[in-house]
């Protein structure tokens, strides 16, 4: 039997998805386990976690050796648990006797640096790290609208829209599904606020792109790519995410709504629809191979694509631990495929003679 472990920061994270996956494991000759990285005993290398009992169709407490193939679903934050788990996962990635389904992607700035001189450079919003408030003010004083994002951010957390109006500066963000707008009366007050923000997190800066639909809702296209049972990349599905009117985020976690890509695409004029399809095909054909050329092997990628009002197309984000909510809501017929995909790729890895590259594993821990 292939031993397959799913890691998360706590055992409640993604519980329905992980349980559905485990229910399909036995038929594929796989034993499913789940655990928190801090529950590995460093002396015995035994794990206190849960094993899926196929007879009971439920998880049971168990002690077991570290599974040979691991699926990392740890979403790291600033909390103490994340800080404890990160070095343990890094150590696991360095071991020769363990394979990860995917070794993760680095932060947004490293991703930009890896792709900015490739065939996909034209699809990347110009990006640079925010060093201090001076360069932000320089951009704003030139009349530009900009967006700042945490270098290690996810799910739209900590993204701000900035615009200067005469002497005042307008700042807009979204928190807990609410649009929060603030006007700073002068550069001094704004700089105090921004300096405090930069002291807590590293940020990057990009031009603001008008990625809204006809209802002025921010929208983008979420596309899920995965490797199949033969180790080849393919698209699983895509959906359109629409945010709140006047907002800046389309993420479902920020209150966005998902609609079927086919429904949205059918509403477009034929020439525009064909152009967008050709552009998406070009991006999705190149992207996985370019990422694996610079970083360690991956299993899945969530790609967020923005389409501006002038029909320019932008790669907004790439996520090596994507959610499945958009696909499940818009293509529920794909749920069995989604549950089985990690198991089928695990089986492929267990039977493959090719060893995963691990010499630069430290680059791959990401949020």
Automatic annotation (TrEMBL):
TM helices/strands, residue ranges: none
GO terms assigned for molecular function: ATP binding
Tree of life domain: Bacteria
Pfam families noted in UniProt: ATPgrasp_YheCD (PF14398)
InterPro entries hit by this protein: ATP_grasp_subdomain_1, YheC/D
Listed name of the protein: YheC/YheD family protein
Organism listed in the record: Neobacillus rhizophilus
């Amino acid at each position: 039997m292939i031993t397959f472990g799913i890691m998360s920061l706590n055992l409640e994270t993604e519980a329905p998805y992980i349980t559905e996956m485990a229910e399909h494991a036995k038929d594929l000759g796989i034993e499913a386990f789940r655990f928190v990285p801090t529950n590995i005993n460093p002396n015995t290398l035994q794990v206190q976690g849960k094993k899926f009992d196929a007879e009971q169709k439920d998880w049971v407490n168990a002690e077991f050796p570290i599974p040979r193939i691991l699926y990392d679903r740890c979403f790291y934050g600033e909390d103490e648990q994340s800080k404890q788990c990160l070095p343990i996962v890094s150590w696991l990635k360095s071991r020769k006797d363990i394979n990860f389904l995917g070794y993760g992607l680095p932060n947004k700035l490293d991703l930009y640096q890896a792709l900015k001189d490739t065939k996909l450079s034209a699809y990347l919003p110009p990006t640079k790290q925010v060093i201090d408030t001076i360069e932000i003010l320089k951009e704003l004083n030139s009349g530009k609208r900009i967006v700042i994002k945490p270098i290690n951010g996810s799910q739209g957390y900590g993204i701000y829209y900035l615009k200067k109006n005469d002497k005042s500066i307008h700042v807009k963000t979204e928190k807990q599904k609410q649009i929060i707008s603030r006007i700073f009366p002068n550069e001094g007050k704004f700089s105090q606020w921004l300096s405090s923000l930069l002291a807590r997190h590293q940020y990057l800066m990009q031009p603001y792109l008008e990625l809204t639909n006809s209802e002025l809702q921010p929208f983008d296209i979420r596309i899920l790519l995965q490797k199949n049972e033969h180790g080849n990349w393919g698209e699983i599905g895509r959906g359109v995410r629409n945010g709140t009117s006047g907002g800046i985020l389309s993420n479902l976690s920020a209150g966005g709504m998902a609609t079927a890509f086919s429904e949205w695409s059918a509403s477009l004029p034929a020439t525009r629809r064909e152009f967008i399809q050709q552009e998406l095909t070009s991006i999705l054909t190149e992207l996985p191979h370019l990422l694996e050329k610079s970083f360690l092997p991956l299993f899945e990628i969530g790609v967020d694509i923005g389409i501006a009002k002038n029909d320019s197309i932008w790669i907004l984000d790439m996520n090596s631990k994507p959610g499945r909510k958009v696909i499940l809501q818009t293509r529920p017929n794909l749920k069995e495929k989604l549950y089985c995909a990690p198991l089928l790729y695990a089986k492929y890895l267990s039977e493959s003679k090719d060893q995963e590259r691990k010499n630069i594993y430290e680059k791959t821990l990401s949020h």
